[in-house]
Amino acid sequence: MSPSSHVVSLVCAVLGASPSPPATVRVMAYNVLYSSPAEDIDKSLEVIEKEAPEVLCLRELTPGFAAAFRKRLGKDYPHLKLMPRKGGWGVGLASRHPLRRVERFPQKPHRMPGLEADVVVGGRTLKVACLHLMPPGASHRQEDSLLEMLRKNATLRKHQAEALVKRYAKERGPVLLFGDMNESRTQEAMTAFAAAGFTHACDGPDALCGDTWPGAASVVPSFVEIDHILGRQLSLSGAKVLHGGGSDHFAVRASVALPP
User: Fold this and answer.
1) Which neighbouring-strand residues pair with 173?
2) Which of 219, 225, 161, 149 minimizes the C-alpha distance to 188?
3) What are phi and psi of 91, to 5 degrees?
4) What average pLDDT score do residues 152-165 get?
């Protein structure tokens, strides 16, 4: 329990009152694959509709997926910030709760964008960042070998994670990072998040986690966990990999309890 929670509990005990219960919100991160045809977009929307998250992070969001989302699920998500693009750089947040201070920002030292917002849940504020770190196979120079590309992109993801840690170092309230991190929990970007106090949803109670890539759109079975939900000053539970959909990633979800 944090020092502030001890103070709240003590004050409530003195006044004879019970501390207010934590606000809880269901969140989901989904890389929906920029090259998905219409039938696969429908399959991915089915996963979202069935899971019904309260806050949704979408990566590789294209104009086609954004239009289909608005048509099918727009009424369920009155608070939307969709920034679709052709290719893999599109990003969006969909929320059943009000969004404040929404900002698209470069995930330094690269320009690939993240999307940040304050989500107002039961009168409390949760800072969220919808992320997509550098893919392992992204090319830098035509003459680079595969091993050189993997090495350069792992280093770049580490620097991106360090920049994100710095970005939120002075944030006093709870912070949620979710999305496609493009690496497993033992690699350097993810360990940088852990060292900065971000806990993994799959380490919380009632977790049913596992590999998230490749997903249902691939004939190759999934063999690596690269989509993650991380929190600081939050209690994370019920994490689950959602098999199905029409993407080369499986979606991940979790329940997030904000501090009182």
Assistant:
1) none
2) 161
3) -145, 150
4) 97
- Is 41 within 8 Å of 246 (Cβ atoms)? yes
Which token pair is 105? 């920002």
What is the Cα–Cα distance from 203 to 209, expressed in whole angstroms?
A: 9
Strands (E) across the chain are located at: 24-31, 55-59, 79-83, 91-95, 99-106, 113-121, 124-132, 175-180, 199-200, 227-232, 235-242, 251-257
Domain residue ranges of the chain, discontinuous segments joined by +: 23-257
CA–CA dist 189, 194 (Å, integer): 9
Alpha-carbon gap, residue 37 to 63, rounded angstroms: 12
β-bridge pairing 55-59 and 24-31: parallel
Q: Both tokens of residue 255?
A: 């329940």
Which of these, 66, 157, 170, 171, lies nearest to 114 by C-alpha position?
Answer: 157
Biggest alpha carbon–alpha carbon distance for the chain: 70
Angle between helices 146-167 and 188-195 (to 10 degrees): 20
pLDDT of residue 3: 44
**For all residues of the chain together, what is the average pLDDT?**
93
The pTM for the full model equals 0.91
Six-digit token string for 51? 């899971």
- Residue 68's CB is within 10 A of a number of other CB atoms, namely 19
**Reported CATH class of domain 23-257:** alpha beta
Amino acid at 245: G
The three-class DSSP label of residue 155 is helix
Q: Which residues pair with 209 in a beta bridge?
A: none
CA 1 to chain centre: 25
Helical residues (DSSP H) of 52-91, grouped into ranges: 63-73
